[in-house]
Each structure stands twice: as C-alpha cells, then as structure tokens.
Design brief:
With 229 residues, this protein is mostly helical. 64% of the residues lie in helices and 0% in strands.
Length: 229
C-alpha cells in the first residue's frame, strides 16, 4: 500500500470547504451551546479572579490549559516552549485581571493573548535562525524538524508518515495561516475567536483558511509524488 493510495484518510480540512460557498453567518452562530455555556463559566470565574480569587484562577487554568498548550505546541513544534508560552499566557491573564471587563467572549480574549505571545516567539526564533545561518555554513539541512527515519522505520504505518508530512506542512505555513488552521481544525474554535485573535474580518479569515488548505494539499502532493487539484 502506497501513500498515494491513502488520500481518503487525509484530514477533512484538506478537502474542499462546503462553507466557502455557503452564506456567511455571524460569528456567534458558529459557536455551539456547549461552548457558550463554558464561556459563561469562564467569564464568571474571571470576574472572581478580578477580585483576587486564586481558586477561581486555578479553575480557569484547568479549563483552558489543554487548548492553549496544544495551540502553542502546534505553532512552535516544541512541547517545552509550548508550556513556557502557555505559562506566560496565564501569568498575563492573572496580571490583567484587575483591568478585566466583559467586552467579548473569554476565549476570544484568551486566544488573543496567546496569539500575541506565540507570534512574538516565532519572530524571535526567526531572528535567531538568521543569526545562526550567518555563523554556520557547513550544515544547510533544516533543523526545525526531527529526522523520523530509524532502523525500525518499516514498522511505521503509512498514515503515520502522512501525518508527519502534514505536521511539517503546517509548520511551514505563514504564521497567520498556521494559527488559523490550528485554531479552527485542531482546537475547533469558532470563527469569532479566530477573527479576534488575528484581527481580521470573517470573510478574510475564511479566505485565509482556504489559502492555507490549498498550500497544505500542494505540499502533500509533492510529498506523495502526484498532483492534487
């Protein structure tokens, strides 16, 4: 069985998006009832944090740390850095608590903080990489991705290989496209959160996701040795 025969197992976000040609709904309409209920609880807890309630803050962290760490890990491709950035996110939440006002969904505010810190980190990495490339000329191989080939690589399933290729493709996307894909397809965030985090309109975000999906499919087409149109 070749990788080319596994196209049906590609994630859904590499396939044509039926929403692209559908009427554009308001961001609020994309959030389900469970998300709204969770956000109301988050706002309630945050208002307690504003009053200095440490227990409420601990509960907020428990509720949202998985999504924040997951987003940071996929953006940075490094779990240790992801934990560091996530910690910075919640430190900023705590320090901002006295000034907190309910002007938007809590998750919208939280992912906006995450976006700022992650983008700062990716740009810092970019500057550091440029310096490193100037200092080292003997090794031109990219170090961002680990070499997954091992003596037992024949036991790795084709699906695993495809997922590794997809991870590399996502990591290579421009930062805004990457964050939009991660928030929408991995963290299942509503468009409202993505629009706020990226400071873009809903049509612009949908267009961004369309371009990202097209780029991912092109990358995998090259990996599989065939065209995907």
């Amino acid at each position: 069985m070749t990788l080319a025969s596994m196209m049906l197992t590609l994630p859904a976000y590499l396939m044509p998006d039926p929403e692209r040609n559908a009427p554009i709904a308001s961001p609020q309409a994309t959030a389900d009832g469970v998300d709204e209920s969770s956000d109301q609880e988050s706002v309630r807890l945050m208002l307690r944090v504003k009053e200095g309630d440490v227990k409420a803050f601990e509960r907020l962290v428990e509720m949202h740390q998985s999504a924040i760490i997951g987003t940071c890990a996929r953006m940075l491709n490094n779990i240790d850095d992801a934990h560091d950035i996530a910690q910075m996110v919640f430190i900023r939440v705590w320090r901002s608590a006295p000034r907190y006002e309910v002007t938007a969904k809590f998750t919208t505010w939280l992912f906006t903080i995450t976006r700022n810190l992650v983008f700062n980190e990716t740009r810092r990495r970019s500057r550091r990489k440029e310096v490193s490339m100037e200092q080292e000329n003997e090794d031109d191989a990219p170090k961002h991705f680990a070499d997954h080939s091992t003596p037992g690589a024949d036991h790795i399933t084709q699906q695993t290989e495809l997922e590794l290729a997809l991870d590399k493709a996502i990591a290579a996307l421009p930062e805004k496209q990457r964050l939009a894909v991660i928030m929408r397809r991995h963290e299942e965030r509503p468009y409202e959160d993505i629009c706020a985090a990226l400071k873009m309109s809903l049509p612009a975000v949908k267009s961004l996701l369309f371009r990202a999906r097209t780029e991912l499919r092109k990358h995998l087409a090259a990996y599989l040795g065939e065209d995907i149109e």
